[in-house]
Write a structure and sequence with these properties.
Layout lengths: L3 H15 L5 H9 L2 H4 L3 E4 L7 E5 L6 H5 L5 E5 L12 E2 L2 E5 L2 H10 L8 E4 L5 H10 L4 E5 L2 H13 L5 E4 L12 E6 L8 H6 E11 L7 E9 L2 E6 L26 E4 L10 H10 L4 E2 L7 E4 L4 E7 L5 E6 L4 H14 L8 E6 L2 E6 L6 E3 L3
Parallel strand pairs: 6-7, 6-9, 7-8, 9-10
Antiparallel strand pairs: 1-2, 2-4, 3-5, 10-11, 11-12, 12-18, 13-17, 14-15, 15-16, 16-17, 18-19, 19-20
The structure holds S-adenosylmethionine.
């Protein structure tokens, strides 16, 4: 049986060979930080279960260590309160805290482009694993991490201490940042946001960078790297890849209500509704209809805005094409369709073709340049 150190070294070798770990200093951090200390127990998804069910893996279960050193996300809490040791067998639930897969954690730390002496604010401590990677690389005095869930925060603090590190750990709403530890050179968020919280833009110094995943109530995601251009202002680009993170709790959508689809105005759809199943297609529709939830599949899409009772649904016609039915004060399909068409006219780029600007006029996501098709983020 392999020791944790051997499993860790093998993971570092695999991440290096895959090209996920390119930086020598981050390789040293990954080789030094014992992930098993931060995830004594975790949930694993049951393959092909729908809705996804999770089985608990506890500290004395065979295979736990091997699981810790696989490049996988380890869910540590479901529905904001369930821990692995709370359950006996498979359980359904929504992940609310986790240790993100090492290739993504290390990839994001590398994308953040830190230098010795930089001060970093991390939002979403989770297990504390990513925090301690940062503390190892930058020095524990330079890392501050904020976790909203007190139980998760206390567990992370115990693990961080057991691993022998002492970065500043704060329990609170990370959307408010942590002004007492600033100004920061870098901010990294491991929960996603609907818009950039303004305190971050005042706590990171001009010229500093923010790496955060943007999302919305349809759970489409885009990872962006921004440079702070002045107090309250920033701009940047979205990055290649497919990154998603659980949404920052205050930005989460309201509890879903039962959907009743009523009749409404009908017209032909000018786009194939299945495009909303595409990673970036859904992102574009979410930008255009940020108050809606997209809950359909294939070419039978449903968009619902629960606040106003507006909805839109598409159905395939027997002889080809699609009909859209819209009802309520918001014409959700009109919004999504116009955005998808604009995106397609600009070559339907992946998110790395998008950028973001934040200034006194609001927060805007655009394609290509600031003169390209633009959508306002809900703030
Ligand atoms: C994906 S997990 C963090 C992963 C962590 N960095 C790691 O690798 O162990 C996201 C965390 O963000 C936390 N979170 C959600 N909303 C937050 C908020 N408003 N402020 C701070 N933390 C938040 C969740 O409780 C959860 O622990």
């Amino acid at each position: 049986m392999s020791t944790p150190a051997e499993l860790r070294a093998a993971l570092v070798d695999r991440l290096t060979a895959d090209g996920a770990l390119t930086d020598q200093a981050w390789r040293a951090a990954a080789a030094a930080v014992p992930r098993e200390t931060f995830v004594p127990e975790y949930f694993l998804p049951v393959p092909a279960s729908a809705p996804t069910a999770y089985v608990p893996v506890l500290c004395d279960n065979p295979g736990r260590l091997e699981g810790v050193y696989r490049d996988q996300t380890l869910v540590t809490q479901l529905d904001g309160h369930l821990s692995p040791s709370d359950v006996q067998g498979p359980v359904a639930g929504a992940p609310s805290s986790s240790s993100t897969l090492p290739s993504l954690v290390l990839g994001m730390w590398q994308q953040l482009d830190v230098e010795a002496g930089h001060r970093v604010l991390e939002i979403g401590t989770g297990t504390g694993y990513s925090t301690v990677l940062g503390a190892h690389r930058l020095g524990e005095q330079n890392v501050v991490s904020v976790e909203v869930d007190p139980e998760i925060g206390v567990r992370a603090a115990e693990a961080v201490k057991a691993a022998g590190y002492s970065p500043t750990l704060v329990i609170g709403d990370g959307l408010a940042g942590y002004a007492d530890g600033g100004p920061y050179d870098r901010l990294i968020a491991t929960c996603s946001v609907r818009h950039l919280p303004l305190p971050w833009l005042h706590q990171v110094r001009p010229g500093g960078r923010i790496l955060a995943t943007f999302t919305g109530w349809s759970f489409a995601f885009g990872l962006a790297l921004l440079t702070v251009t002045g107090p309250g202002c920033a701009s940047g680009r979205f990055l290649p890849g497919y990154v998603n993170f659980m949404v920052a709790r205050p930005h989460d959508r309201p509890p879903r209500q039962p959907v009743t689809l009523l009749s409404g105005d009908e017209r032909p759809s000018e786009i194939d509704p299945a495009i909303l199943g595409d990673w970036t297609g859904k992102w574009v529709a979410q930008l255009a209809a940020p108050s809606a939830e997209i809950i359909g599949a294939g070419d039978q899409q449903i968009l619902v805005d629960f606040a106003t009772g507006s909805h839109a649904r598409t159905t395939p016609n027997p002889d080809g094409g699609w009909t859209v039915t819209q009802r309520g004060p918001l014409r959700l399909w009109d919004q999504a369709e116009a955005a998808i068409r604009a995106w397609q006219q600009h070559g339907a780029p992946h998110q790395e073709g998008f950028g973001i600007t934040v200034d006194g006029d609001g927060q805007r996501v655009w394609i290509g340049t600031e003169e390209g098709p633009t959508w306002n983020l809900p703030i």
